[in-house]
Design brief:
The protein has about 160 residues and is α+β, with helices and mostly antiparallel strands. About 60% of the residues lie in helices and about 15% in strands. It has a 3-stranded antiparallel sheet with strand order 1-3-2. Strands 4-5 form a two-stranded antiparallel ribbon.
Length: about 160
């Protein structure tokens, strides 16, 4: 999740420092994540001795799902407070939009405004789509199965890392 938040490949040594995971444990964990096709371990172009870690597309998807669940956790823990939580999240988002607008109009040149508006509109369209999908009981166009309603088969994909 740290690599996803940084949104850029990160050196293996920096990842160990950021997470506080001992080097041998991190290497074993990265081996497992590589085998599951969630991360890639490549040579650092600036230092061939160093390795850089980056998320694969599948790793980004898994990370997004985990973060979505973490965001929803307070609602699960306190269902009576769901409305208050929704209001608080909406206030946070609106405050962020207002701050970004003020800073953007004061700092960024006007020619960037149409691009930013277009990107923001796309984010809101995506958010509306995903909200509609979620509330209708679907994810990615497929109906969401309830817990215990079916079995999963293990992945047969192999990945060398």
């Amino acid at each position: 999740m740290i690599a996803a938040r940084l949104n850029t490949p990160v050196r293996q040594v920096a990842l160990a420092e950021l997470t506080g995971i001992e080097w041998p444990s991190l290497v074993r964990l990265l081996d497992q994540l590589c085998a599951a096709n969630l991360v890639r371990r490549d040579e650092d172009p600036d230092d061939r001795r160093a390795k850089i870690i980056s998320l694969t597309d599948e790793g980004r998807l898994v990370t997004a799902k985990i973060e979505k669940e973490l965001i929803a956790l307070p609602a699960v823990m306190n269902p009576a407070g769901i409305f208050d939580l929704a209001v608080t999240r909406t206030e946070e988002i609106l405050l962020g939009i207002v701050c970004a607008s003020v800073v953007g109009s004061a700092i960024l040149p006007n020619r960037l405004a149409p691009t930013l508006i277009e990107q923001t509109d796309a984010w809101f369209r995506d958010a509306a789509f995903y909200a509609k999908e979620t509330f209708s009981g679907r994810m990615g166009g497929k109906t969401i199965r309830r817990a215990g309603s079916g079995s999963r088969s293990p992945s047969t994909r192999s990945n060398s890392c």
